Amino acid sequence: MSAIRSAQDWKKDAEKLSIRHQAFIAGKYVPAKSGKTFDRINPATGQSLAKIAECDAADVDVAVKAARAAFDKGAWRNEAPAKRKKVMLKFAELINQHRDELALLETLDMGKPINDSYNIDIPGSAACIAWYAEAIDKMYDEVAPTPNNALALITREPMGVVGAVIPWNFPLMMAAWKLGPALATGNSVIVKPAEQSPLTALRVAELAAEAGLPEGVLNIVPGYGPTAGKAIGLHPDIDCVAFTGSGEVGKLFLQYSGQSNMKRVWLECGGKTPNIVLSDCADIDKAATAAAFGIFFNQGEVCNAGSRLIVDAKIKDRLLEKIFKVGETLQPGDPLDPSTKMGAIVDKTQLERVMGYIKKGTSEGADLVFGGKQVRENTGGYYVQPTVFDKVKNDMTIAREEIFGPVLSTITAKDDEDAIRIGNETTYGLAAAVWTRDISKAHKAAKALRAGVVWVNCFDEGNIATPFGGFKQSGIGRDKSLHSLDKYVELKTTWIAL
After folding, report:
1. What's the CATH fold of domain 274-463?
2. Catalytic residue among 55, 128, 240, 303, which?
3. What's the pLDDT at 2?
């Protein structure tokens, strides 16, 4: 377990780590057709990790041809459900077997603490693949009610070629959320990992092949959004795009669909989650701990981070004091140190973005009451202290825009009704939380909050069996659960005259 390994142990492993740096297309590692590469920088040190193949439209086209050929050949989609299940279970098993290596790649690539990579991201990714594997031979089609002279079958068929465009904050887990249901339903998949964090996707492609996935069924094309990502969005032979990332880019994929072949587009585009603590909250200590971890976990680089703390005036000061105490224990440290609970921001661009929002919050009149500074600059890495603002108005920039960093905006509510109103006053609707001892209030709040997930007296809870996704500009469709399978299939009616 990582908890009993030292930072020195992890650093020794890093020195001998073999990093896959080429694209994975048609079952082989290949360079970008242009020969270009881009530098992958370790956010903990600012030093180069590897030069990664910089794929563009030409490489995406080759990957699509490989994926389409595999789909048309039918070696995966026409395979017996029990056999496809066996391959995917082996894939999940291999992810677990390579847990140390994958956790190390994840931490070096995007700066998250090694304990989080090892104990959350990698086993969670394997569990996701295994869960969808188990669903393969348990999905039934339908027979519709018809007159006696007809038989109507309603069947689900794989969509074809799926493009999965993955964010950098949970690189392998977000890939698994797409790969699990897309592969389980028989599709071929092209993954474009974020340029900030391609390393685990490139490695697991090899593990999928080792598990028995036929060549061409899974392809990985690292590259930049405006080139490789756009090419996936515009390609006329991709049937569906599943994207997790910013709303700005999500809207581009909707445009790309309209400009090309009207491909299905499924979007998870972040949020500005209200964490609402009402005056009758039963456990202030628990609420404070959840509020702190809800925004500082993964350096705040979480789409459903509880970035807006909406709290009744009567308990605000007491709650903030407790949040500060938790925040003191979550100061940034070396991501390879097992005791570190908060790592590095993913890259210099994101660091500057977060620091810009902190400056904006102060200039617009919010009170910076905790943290707010760049730290550990002598390491060459990108670290920001846990940060808390008070006296935030809901129309301030830091309350409206997704920062994707460890920045908490505290907004005071006059009463319960005011808290719910403020919570809904956003273009996003990914998640929300409410803290109250009154079960009737809890149910009414959950109904009133316009969000895809509502937590009551907890934060960021759930499992693979519950759908995840949002209302409004937080996206279209749901990841996780059996509901996500519907994103990657077409419904067909076959009417038979008897």
Report:
1. Aldehyde Dehydrogenase; Chain A, domain 2 (3.40.309)
2. 303
3. 47
Residue boundaries of the structural domains of the chain? 2-269+474-494, 274-463
Tokens of 369: 């009451």
Q: What proportions of the chain, in percent to the nearest 5, are helix, strand and coil?
A: 45, 20, 35
The CA angle 63-25-91, to the nearest 5 degrees, is: 120
CA dihedral 236, 242, 247, 250 (to 10 degrees): 0
- Quickly tell me which residue has 């092209």 as its tokens: 190
- State the catalytic residue, choosing from 54, 215, 268, 402: 268
Closest CA to 304 of 326, 330, 331, 274: 274
**With left for phi above 0 and alpha for psi between -120 and 50, is residue 29 left, alpha or beta?**
beta
Contact 261, 286 (CB under 8 A): no
60-86 tens-digit pLDDT:
999 999 999 999 999 999 999 999 999
Sign of CA dihedral 467, 471, 473, 476: positive
Distance CA 307, CA 271 (A): 9
When the pLDDT of each residue in the chain is averaged and rounded to a whole number, the result is 97
Active site residue 281: no
Homologous superfamily, domain 2-269+474-494: Aldehyde Dehydrogenase; Chain A, domain 1 (3.40.605.10)
Helices (H), 16-143: 57-73, 81-97, 99-110, 114-116, 122-135
Q: Give the three-class secondary structure for 268.
A: strand
Predicted confidence at residue 4, as pLDDT, reads 66
> Which residue in 142, 139, 207, 141 sits closest to 179, CA to CA?
207
In 54-105, where do the E strands start and end?
none
Beta strand 308-312 pairing with 407-413: parallel
Residue 461 appears among annotated catalytic residues: no
> What is this structure's pTM?
0.97
Joined tokens for residue 355: 């620091």
Tens-place pLDDT, residues 397-426: 999 999 999 999 999 999 999 999 999 999
